[in-house]
Each structure stands twice: as C-alpha cells, then as structure tokens.
Amino acid sequence: MVNVKDYVSRPVQDIIGAIFAEQKGLMEKYHEIEKGNGLVVYEPPLNLQLMTHQLRIKDFAWRITEELGEALEALEDTPDYAHMEEEIADALHFLTELSIMVGHDPGKQVSMEELYDTAGEAMEPTAFRANNLACLTYRVGVVVTRLAVTMNCLKNKPWKQSQMMTDTLYFNINLAKTWIAFIQLCIVAEISPTDLYDLYSRKRQVNQFRQRSRY
Question: Domain range holding 126?
C-alpha cells in the first residue's frame, strides 16, 4: 500500500502559505468525492450564522480530533513515532481545511516560523515538554479543548427551535488559539516547521494518489 515513505517533498520558503495553497487544491477534489457519496458540501467561505454550515464545520472539528486520537494510539504498547507524526499531519490537513472553509488564514499575519516562536513562548518552561505519551496526551488535550471552545461559539444546534448569532470575532480568536495549541503539540513532538511541511506534503501526495486510484 502506498504511504508517505513513497514520496518526497520539495523545500518551500513560505511554509504556511504553501500548506494553505496545496490544501485548497486537495479539498476541491475531495468535495467532488464527498458530493458523490451523498454528503451536502458547501463551498467556502461558510456562513458562521447558518446551522447547516455550522454542522459542516463541526464535522471537521471531529475529523481533527479523531486524527489526534490515532496519533496517541500510535504511542501505546510499542511506540511508533513515525506513525504518530503521520497522524499529526492528517490532523493538519483537516485543521487547514476547516480554516479555509471559514476564511481564517494565520499565514496572512505571520510565517510558520513566527507561529512556532509565538507558540513556544506561550508554553510552560519545563512542564509537559518531553516527547513521550504522557506529555503528548496533555498537548493533544489542550488542542481538543481549544477546538471545543471554538466549536461552542456555534450555538445553532439541530434540536433547538431558537437560533443564536455567532460572535465571529470570538470564534476566530479561539481558532487562532487552536492553531497555537496545535503548534505546541508539534514542538513537543519535535516536529520543526520544515518537518511539518515535509510531513504535510508527503501525506498530501498520498491523498492525491488515493484520489486518482479511487481508494
């Protein structure tokens, strides 16, 4: 089976810009596939006020959470750090796509290297910084917590008969915090900005192969 080991990536200057640009191309094809599978797909930018669009956004929040759970599972029993890194790359794909869907692009303000600097400065000096299951579990918990708080800004539930306006500023503030938490996870996992793009790029190529081969 084709996997990330079968591909190589090329160096880029603007890492976060490249990730967002490449994800836009990847998601267009996946939208066609999802529509073919009967899902309702809304083209970006999604409307944060609409319940149906909120459900789509929350679907991607769960996809991120699931990939991070798989990353931790890779460290149970016999730790497989390469597999863990691949699952983190999968989570990055979904986090990037979610951000594209809502029009949130951290790369418009800072580079990936600057994002790493900001995330590192916000971390505790010593606690929970070892590259092991306990510390990574804590870091995943922080990402999921920030993601959950972000999703809780979207109040229009299918079972509610009254609808509430979304505070878009608060939503974007918390999504930015989710990105910081995700980068902190990468720092603890010893994934540098260059490593992160390499992981993303190689997994993107795997996904493009899967698209072509109707996997």
Answer: 14-212
Q: Is residue 8 domain-resident?
A: no
Residue 91 in domain: yes
CATH number, domain at 201? 1.10.4010.10
| pLDDT by 10s per residue, the chain, length 215 | 777 777 889 989 999 999 999 999 999 999 899 999 998 899 899 999 999 999 999 999 999 999 999 999 999 999 999 999 999 999 999 999 999 999 999 888 899 999 999 999 999 877 678 899 999 999 999 999 999 999 999 999 888 888 899 999 999 999 999 999 999 999 999 999 999 999 999 999 998 988 888 77
User: How many domains does the chain fold into?
Assistant: 1
In a domain, 7, yes or no: no
CA dihedral sign of residues 90, 77, 192, 205:
negative
Backbone angles phi, psi at 49, to 5 degrees: -90, -15
Q: Are residues 189 and 136 in contact, defined by beta-carbon separation less than 8 angstroms?
A: yes
Per the CB < 8 A criterion, the answer to whether 92 and 160 are in contact is: no
* H-helix or E-strand spanning residue 209: helix 193-212
CA-nearest of 119, 124, 121 to 186 is 119
